[in-house]
Design brief:
- In the N-terminal section; belongs to the glycosyltransferase 20 family.
- It is an enzyme of class 2 (transferase).
- This is alpha,alpha-trehalose-phosphate synthase (UDP-forming).
- By secondary structure, the protein is of the alpha/beta class.
- Helices cover about 35% and strands about 20% of the residues.
- The longest helix has 21 residues.
- The two termini are about 55 Å apart.
């Protein structure tokens, strides 16, 4: 059977989906899919998996950790018949469970670092699930290369580290086939997650940039799945990120998570800036938590640098002591001051900048020649990154040059180690190093300074003076462009591009008084002890639980195609307005109040021609012609426009400028309903707005009879938002003693008389009808924007406040599926017009104007 969601991955990658036939009815919908027609139509029938329709055999909550690689070591057996698997103790993901509740089961989903023959894959998968609770995703070779070495390493990795593809040889151009492979692999991962997922009880925690579109695949199937994402790499500034051709697809996919985590505020700030500039989303901070409102859902933003596992470091130190590595290195570097660098062979690690700084140090401070050694450990590259051959050649050339110039028999100032180094050997180098130097030009986190600090503290309970006791002092010279830098306040921070200042920082570090080294070390160790990997994972889980707390208190819809898919979460009482229901209520009622907004409600917001059509005029006249109806147009537009446009509708009441001007049906004169008719405050407010308009390109002032509005929707989003907050404070200060209200809205700051709102208009209409003995038993109110929420709020409380009778049938309706104080919605303007047409037809006395098609403009 053909899948209803999409026929192939190329459709998904391009965002084009064909319309499929109707899917057969399922026997039972899981609890997370209770809204008819929302998610079932997106299921992929070709996925052979255990879905939520199959009850989980595991009771209670579980954590499913999804990453590119499983935390396993894989090795072919000597007889070439099968595989040996063991935990990778160095894997950070393996340590995540230490911060989770003891009774929470942890499953891992990811790929293996080895290629398993298709014949063996089922056996391997069953074995790993049973013995390790790991679900392997076997990636086809034709996808793996384009996915990992291609899109991940040649597109995302350079871009996230601020490297733009200025030429085909420098960074690599965007390749659509690589993006499609990336999408394919993410979809494959989603199928593996679904195989073991119990969506009602499980948490899903996705890790890093390899799986940034996975949230969309999972959210398409389970709208209430509790899902978090953590990015372990930097997130670039919006100027860099928006060069990515699939920028919006990735942003929207991430926003299908409930919680998105970053190491530093800088990374989070850049992500929020991208959401603002590209998607028009603004974040809010409440009680210390940052959140993005996205179609009724609050997407949490978590800022928490990852820690290390203290016990793992201590175990490695004990192993190093057992292997006598400490003594070996102490003897090798006896009498020397050792500086240490531990980095991957990567273009962004700044290894050659570190070597240049070392060269500068030896030149500027000759006293260190023959006495100081920089040991640079280079771990092999993790993939086929950019310019690796050139970088390796440059490093080796610098090592050779420096050793030739400053070395002598038995002494090389640079010791370059380019091979895999075990963690126990790494601990041995940490133990003899007076200072660790990290000069990465960009790095997501970098845990080397953390490991070094903990190693220098030693093993708790070790005998004083032993190799395991530790000197309890350490010095760090770290780049200001790495994620761990903000949390190491005692480190000497450097700009790695300025290798001269780095050289001075290195000199300062090794020349510092011992007492100062101890104090700095103690400060760092105290932080690391309380902010380990268990604290990090526990904190992330707590925030995920908090963010997902209201999942089952809202009604959720899955809407949109491709990576435009998102979930709309709304109040359970919020539902689509039924034409049959409202017509039936209309026919039952004896006295009716109908309040209509104009722009965005009767007139499409995208329409260039704003004058009402003959159809609208006809509908209004038929509604107004019923003697049981009181019909009002309640708009933010000026009274001249409304008077001109609706002159054919003699029995239509008008409220202009949100109700400041008011005209009753069959009256010619306008009434004023503000608390003051004095507008001297405009002379104070307008100069302030003009100054901000001159300073903010793309902004403008709209002057109405009763109000002033500063618009900034065409300004730079970040600057416009900042200026809006400034002008709001400025105007509130200047107008503190004036009878006006200063309010901010969607890309506007408005100053208007106090006591003016559409809600007040609604209240006055109801009160007037009651005074005339025509208290309404039917209320229909339709609007689309923030100003209409005032009407919905008043109407919602009108019965309890006895403004309306207890038996009044109230239909407060917003246009579009979005969070609202209204209890009903219609999708768009055409639906509103169709509904009003049906209501007009049901009217007992349809009366038309003599000249209803004559519109005065």
């Amino acid at each position: 059977m053909m899948s209803r969601s999409y026929t192939n991955l190329l459709d998904l990658a391009s965002g084009n989906f064909p319309v499929m036939g109707k899917e057969k009815e399922r026997k039972r919908f899981p609890r997370v899919m209770t809204v008819p027609g929302s998610i079932a139509e997106l299921d992929d029938d070709q996925t052979n998996s255990v879905t939520s329709e199959n009850p989980s055999s595991v009771a209670g909550e579980r954590m499913i950790i999804v990453a590119n690689l499983l935390p396993l070591k894989s090795k072919r057996r000597p007889d070439n018949k099968g595989w040996n698997f063991s935990w990778n103790e160095d894997s950070l993901l393996l340590r995540v469970k230490d911060g989770l509740p003891e009774d929470m089961e942890v499953l891992y989903v990811g790929s293996l670092s080895v290629d398993v023959d298709p014949i063996e894959q089922d056996d391997v998968a069953n074995y790993l699930l049973e013995k390790f609770k790991c679900v392997p995703a076997f990636l086809p070779p034709h996808l793996l290369g384009k996915y990992y070495d291609g899109f991940c390493k040649k597109q995302l990795w350079p871009l996230f580290h601020y490297m733009l593809p200025f030429s085909a040889d420098h960074g690599g151009r965007f390749d659509r086939s690589m993006w499609e492979a990336y999408v394919s692999v993410n979809r494959l991962f989603s199928q593996k997650v679904v195989e073991v997922l119990n969506p009602e009880d499980d948490f899903v925690w996705i890790h890093d940039y390899h799986l940034m579109v996975l949230p969309t695949f999972l959210r398409r199937r389970f709208v209430r799945l509790r899902m978090g994402f953590f990015l372990h790499s930097p997130f670039p500034s919006s100027e860099i990120y928006r060069t990515l051709p699939v920028r919006e697809e990735i942003l929207k996919a991430l926003l299908n998570s409930d919680l998105i985590g970053f190491h530093t505020f800088d990374y989070a700030r850049h992500f929020l800036s991208c959401c603002s500039r590209m998607l028009g989303l603004e974040y809010q901070s409440k009680r210390g938590y940052i959140g993005l409102e996205y179609y009724g859902r609050t997407v949490g933003i978590k800022i928490m640098p990852v820690g290390i596992h203290m016990g793992h470091i201590e175990s490695a130190m004990k192993l190093a002591d057992k292997e006598k590595k400490f003594e070996e290195l102490k003897h090798q570097f006896e009498g020397k001051t050792v500086l240490l660098g531990v980095d991957d062979m990567d273009i962004f690690k700044g290894i050659n900048l570190k070597l240049l700084a070392m060269e500068q140090l030896l030149k500027q401070h000759p006293k260190w020649q023959g006495r100081i050694v920089l040991v640079q450990i280079c771990n092999p590259a993790r993939g086929k990154g950019i310019d690796l051959v050139e970088i390796k050649g440059e490093i080796e050339e610098s090592c050779h040059r420096i050793n030739k110039e400053f070395g002598k028999p038995g002494y090389d100032p640079i010791v370059f180690i380019h091979r895999p180094v075990s963690i126990s050997e790494r601990m041995s180098y940490y133990s003899i190093a007076e200072c660790v130097v990290v000069t990465a030009v960009r790095d997501g986190m970098n845990l080397t300074p953390y490991e070094y600090t903990v190693c220098r503290q030693g093993v708790s309970g070790a005998e004083t003076g032993s190799n395991l006791s530790g000197p309890k002092k350490s010095m760090l010279v770290v780049s200001e462009f790495i994620g761990c830098s903000p949390s190491l306040s005692g480190a000497i921070r450097v700009n790695p591009w300025n290798f001269e200042s780095t050289a001075e920082a290195m000199n300062e570090a090794i020349s510092m008084a011992e007492s100062e080294k101890e104090l700095r070390h103690e400060k760092h160790y105290r932080y690391l002890r309380t902010h380990d990997v268990a604290f990090w994972s526990r904190s992330f889980l707590q925030d995920m639980e908090r963010t997902c707390a209201d999942h089952f208190s809202k009604r959720c819809w899955g809407i949109g195609l491709g990576f435009g898919f998102r979930v709309v979460a709304l109040d359970p009482n919020f539902r689509k307005l039924s034409v049959d229901d409202i017509v039936a209520a209309y026919c039952r009622s004896k006295s009716r109040a109908i309040l209509l907004d104009y722009d965005g409600t009767l007139m499409p917001p995208t329409s260039i021609i704003k004058t009402p059509s003959s159809q609208i005029i006809s509908i209004l006249n038929r509604l107004c012609g019923d003697p049981n109806n009181t019909v009002f147009m309640v708009s933010g537009r000026g009274r001249e426009s409304l008077s001109s446009w609706f002159s054919p509708c003699k029995k239509l009441g008008l409220a202009a400028e949100h109700g400041y001007f008011f005209r009753w049906p069959q009256h010619e004169d306008w009434e004023t309903y503000g608390q003051s008719s004095e507008f001297g405050w405009m002379q104070l407010a307008e100069p302030v707005m003009k100054s901000y308009t001159e300073a903010t390109d793309g902004s403008e002032i709209e002057r109405k009879e009763s109000s002033l509005v500063w618009h900034y929707q065409d300004a730079d989003p970040g600057f416009g938002f900042a200026q809006a907050k400034e002008i709001l404070d400025h105007l509130e200060s200047v107008l503190a003693n004036e009878p006006v209200a200063v309010k901010s809205g969607q890309f506007i700051v408005e100053v208007k008389p106090q006591g003016v709102s559409k809600g007040i208009v609604a209240e006055k209409i109801f009160t007037s009808m009651a005074e005339k003995g025509k208290q309404p038993d039917f209320v229909l109110c339709i609007g689309d924007d923030r100003s209409d929420e005032d009407m919905f709020e008043i109407i919602g409380s009108a019965v309890s406040r006895r403004i309306l009778p207890y038996n009044t049938e109230v239909f407060a309706c917003t246009v579009g599926q979005k969070p609202s104080k209204a209890k009903y919605y219609l999708d768009d303007t055409p639906e509103v017009v169709t509904m009003l047409e049906s209501v007009a037809e049901a009217s007992d006395s349809p009366v038309s104007s003599d000249n209803e098609s004559d519109i005065s403009v």
